[in-house]
Every structure is written in C-alpha cells, then in structure tokens.
C-alpha cells in the first residue's frame, strides 16, 4: 500500500471515530456485568442513532457498511452477504479473513452502492450514523436498517467511557439483533481472559504501571496520531495495568503529536504502529532530526508495530491489540528506576 492510500484510510477512520466524548477516569464493565444485561429496545439503546421500526427476529442476510460490524458478525459466527471496502479489511482488521474473503463488495464505507446492496438481498443493514444518516431512508427502502453511533458522547455515572467500552456495547447489540447473545457473551469472556493473561505477563516482570504511547504513523512528516485517554487503546492499556499517554480524553480518541512532544517524557515507552508494508525499518520512519533527542528513542524504547493492529475495531481487535501491546512492550527494555512511572 502506498502512503497516499494509507493516509486516505486513516483519514476515513478519523471521520468514523468522531463523536467520542471527554470525561474523567476509565471504566471497564466485565463480562459478568454484561451477562446481567438484557436486550433492550433499540429506542432505549444509547449506541443506536437510527433504526427501522420493524426488524427481523433472526436476520440471516446482513450487509455491513463498516469494518467493526463485519468483525463482530464473524466473531458470533455469521458471514455477511455484503460489506464495504472488503479489500481493505485484511489490511486494517484481519480478524477471520478466511470467512470474509469471498463476501461481495458493496462499495466504499463513505459511498456504498445502493444497487450492490439491493443485489445482496439483505434482511438487515448495519451502518454508522456519522456516515450513513443521509442515506438512511434509501437504505431502509432496501431492508430494515440500524445505524450505530461510534463513540460515546457522555460519561456514565461520572466515569469515562472509552471506545473499547462502546465497541463492547455494539457487539452485545449485534448479538441481540441476530439472536446470538450467548455467542457475544462468549466473545467478551475470551477477550477478558486474554486481557487478564496479558496483564499477568506484565505484572510478573514488574512492568505494571508503565507509561506507554500508542502512536499511529500517518505518512506525514513528523506528525502522528497519539491515541488518547478515551480510545480503545486506552481501554486496553487500563485493562493491562498500563498508563496511556496522553491521558486526556479527546473527541476522536486521538490527538496529533510530533517528536517534539516526546522530548520531556523520560519514562515513556513508544509503540509505533506502521502504515506501510512490512520490512520498512523503524529508523526510516523516525527521520525527523528531533527523534534522536527523544528519551524513548535513545534508550531503545520505541517498538515498531506492523500495520493492521487497528484502533477502531471491535472486541476481537482489542484482544489482538492487547497481545501486541504486551509482546512489543516486553521486547523493549524497562525504564530505568528513579522517576515516577506515571509522570505526565
């Protein structure tokens, strides 16, 4: 993939992520709490922006207009009959590629083809309000439609809601919509078990409480996304006992940073997510003259993460992110003692 395509995809993800709210401190409902929740009417569901008044009880032919929903359907054992941008799904998500490899293309996530959607003969369409609200009526004429909000707009009981929390709620709702509630609970149990395993690996070697940054390469000169305190990466880091920098919440769950922003972070470990093909050396990516003065770089605490570890996926993507965050962190030296790990 060339840099232009990478930037386009990242910009699209940025647009999808808009709508995340700011708040105070993370909260992470566990699977036991989720199991106590019942399927509520969509009119009372805060993650749904629009929905058809009548929906099929157990839809079999579902079209998805966003990667996360394809991932969630695959996770509960359903193959969609159409999806947007299927050629890019393996690049950025990659969960259960075998199942999704032959799903028909119904256009792009920004401009899906109504003709292609109709040809798939769906009995349910899943989309995103931010993108697809203008065509909701047209989609609804083809099949019953549900549009999700992506990010949380408000706190819950005074606590921050991360995009990970929101993604879990989307999975549960998809489980309800498809009659796969038990399968959705099993997915969450698997994710929680993975988080616990990775947290234990870090704790056993004294890496708990470490400050990390999850940076996404954008193909721009010395400009990156740092995933912030209400992002999925923050939810994962919290579950692993780590502290994500920057901690503040932002509307999109990301903030633009440069190498200069890292100069006064002596204890920060940087996990740098590539946007290019594999085998491009980290040194080639960190080509700003300022990088040589960044403490994490001089101490060997910048780790390269190959692409398709995507910060805007569902719970299974979050599990992969947790495994990768843990593996990469453990491959790097720990910060030297003597400075507060949680230094801001």
Automatic annotation (TrEMBL):
What range does the record give for the signal peptide? Answer: 1-17
Q: What keywords sit in the KW lines?
A: Ion transport, Iron, Iron transport, Signal, Transport
Q: Name one GO cellular component term.
A: outer membrane-bounded periplasmic space
For this protein, the record's Pfam families field holds: Peripla_BP_2
- Cite the Fe/B12 periplasmic-binding domain residue spans from the record: 61-333
State the family named in the UniProt similarity comment for this chain: Belongs to the bacterial solute-binding protein 8 family.
Subcellular localization is given as: Cell envelope
Q: Which InterPro entries match?
A: ABC_transptr_periplasmic_BD, Bact_iron-sidero_bind
Tell me which domain of life the UniProt entry assigns to the organism this sequence originates from.
Bacteria
The organism of origin for this protein: Paraburkholderia dipogonis
Put simply, this protein is called Iron-siderophore ABC transporter substrate-binding protein
Q: For the region Disordered, what residue ranges are annotated?
A: 20-39
**GO biological process terms on file:** iron coordination entity transport
Which CDD domains does the record cross-reference, listed alphabetically? FhuD (cd01146)
Q: What is its main location?
A: other
